[in-house]
Design brief:
heterodimer, A: 207 residues, B: 180 residues, mainly alpha, 72% helix
Chain lengths: 207, 180
């Protein structure tokens, strides 16, 4: 009876097995390779500075070219297209919506550990009528992002989250292909919510 | 404090836990060291995602992923899909509590089993059962932490624990009988 709540009552046949401690040599080599990796991330050597300069020049050239072509399709338009497509795809058939299905933010949030290079905020919005349903990895705006899913009565909402260097920005709503799209930036994270609900009803997501 | 210094302060203390899990996944020292090296480099890369969460389960999730990648590449035969359908969590209690521990001769037998024998038996278990036993009984992680590290529901953690324990008990018995 008590098995679930009283771990002391569990039989533990593997408890007598070895706890293998890291050899000292491993500790040393891990520290050395971390220092090396961290050095490569920053260390401003001359060669690196030159490499960076070349890279900047190339990026500037490409950006300038791309800017000319993309004048008609600004970034937000492209992101909106991405998130709406992904929202539609997530609702096609079983199992596309969530990689981790749970209404518990403490289950959904840690699921992203080691799967993304950032920790998406996973707010519990049940009191506003949006019940957390789960999360998954998705690919939007040319990067891996967190997709959080919420349910509001029969509606499903996808909230896509990724880090952004931009300052906080209040929610902006729009409609694309009949779907409500709302995006905002807060605490260094860009958020895009998509649903078939009316865009006015999405407001609590950004509160 | 630099990013690396912060990383070393919060993550490096869990090196033993990382090595222990990798050692039990790969079943040998040399490969475990490779997996740990790779996992720490990944961890450093993803470090900004740690913010505020507990470093040990976070690191172990990365070690586990690195360990599985290594197994899939080098020993694909080790990675077998488990059939979790047979045992539902309600069976777990009965499976684990057939008789009070003191009067169960099996348990008395197990208590006297020596470490080497338990190690060998545990190494024989399929990796999916072995890892939950290692995380629960050797690393003392909670069901919830194991669920998040292995990316499986808590109910599955419990049923794998129950089934893994049953298999381990049987393997230990067989070895003990052979030895005597």
């Amino acid at each position: 009876m008590a098995a679930k709540n009283d771990p002391a009552a569990e039989p533990m046949p593997a408890r007598d097995a070895s706890y293998y401690r890291a050899p000292d040599a491993l500790r040393e080599s891990v520290r050395a390779s971390l220092a090396k990796a961290a050095g490569e991330e920053r260390g401003p050597s001359l060669r690196r500075a030159f490499g960076l300069a070349v890279a900047f020049a190339a990026v500037a050239l490409i950006t300038w070219n791309v800017a000319i072509f993309q004048a008609a399709a600004p970034r937000e338009e492209l992101v909106a297209r991405d998130v709406v497509n992904s929202h539609v795809r997530s609702l096609m058939g079983e199992g596309h919506l969530n990689d981790v299905a749970s209404s518990d933010q403490h289950t959904v949030k840690p699921w992203f550990n080691g799967r993304l290079d950032f920790a998406p905020p996973v707010p519990d919005l049940a009191h506003t009528g949006f019940a957390l349903a789960g999360g998954r990895l998705d690919y939007v705006n040319g990067r891996a992002v967190a997709a959080l899913t919420y349910r509001n009565r029969l509606h499903v909402v996808n909230v896509f989250v990724w880090p952004s260097a931009a300052p906080d920005a209040a929610p902006v709503t729009a409609t694309r292909k009949g779907y409500a799209v709302m995006h905002w930036t807060r605490g260094g994270m860009e958020h895009w919510a998509v649903s078939d609900m009316s865009s006015a009803l999405l407001a609590p997501l950004a509160e | 404090m630099t990013r690396l210094a912060r990383f070393e302060k919060s993550v490096l203390p869990h090196l033993d836990a990382a090595y222990n899990l990798a050692r039990w996944l790969t079943r040998n020292d040399h490969d475990a060291q490779d997996v740990v090296q790779e996992a720490f480099l990944r961890a450093l890369r993803f470090y900004d995602g740690l913010q505020g969460t507990d470093a040990r389960p976070w690191l172990l999730a990365i070690v586990r992923n690195a360990g599985y990648s290594w197994l899939e590449k080098n020993r694909p035969g080790d990675v077998v899909a488990l059939d979790d359908a047979g045992l539902v969590p309600s069976d777990v209690e009965t499976a684990g509590h057939e008789a009070p521990a003191e009067s169960n001769p099996e348990v008395i037998l197990l208590q006297s089993a020596n470490r080497k024998l338990v190690n060998l038996a545990l190494e024989e278990l399929p990796v999916g059962y072995r890892e939950v036993l290692v995380m629960r009984e050797i690393e003392d992680l909670s069901y919830k932490e194991i669920a998040s590290i292995a990316g499986i529901p808590i109910g599955t953690v419990m049923s794998r624990l129950a089934r893994g324990r049953e298999m381990l008990r049987r393997l230990i018995e067989i070895r003990m009988r052979k030895a005597s």
